[in-house]
Input
Amino acid sequence: MTTVADGTKAAFAAEYDVPIPYMQRTRDYYLALGYENPYRWASFTEVPFASLAKPLARARIGLITTAAPYRPEAGDQGPGAPYNAEAKFFSVYSRSTDVDHDLRIAHVAIDRKHTSMKDSGTWFPLPALRRLAASGRVQLAPRFHGAPTNRSQRVTLETDAPEILARCRQDQVDAALLVPT
Output
């Protein structure tokens, strides 16, 4: 137990209860693939941000995911499957938010030791967003969009991000929920 600035007590987490070092694991993976430099995440000193111009209940929310549509021909993509590069997608895609979709995650940085990937609601919250929309707490855009993760930062910035932005504008999105997997 320790005392924080306002006088309250706080307990430190147990030594075994630390964040999963996925960033280091991803860097190591890139080096093992033969790249000369470890992976470097994009980090900008300034980013565009705009305050929401209307109450959340009147805002149209767009969902952007890195989860891949299931393709049976691409091999094992189920919960517990090993990393599967064949399951990746290479272009932005859009699907209706009115129905459920079979999306999967097989990215290299997923912690397959501590998670099962069985609950798709943890990485693709479309059903939860539909419930929020039905209760009047948000308005849901008619489509969600998939962002490829197998690209360079340059391709993401020059190709994928502008395409997703254009689609969000077509859908009159006020705010976007980005759910990386």
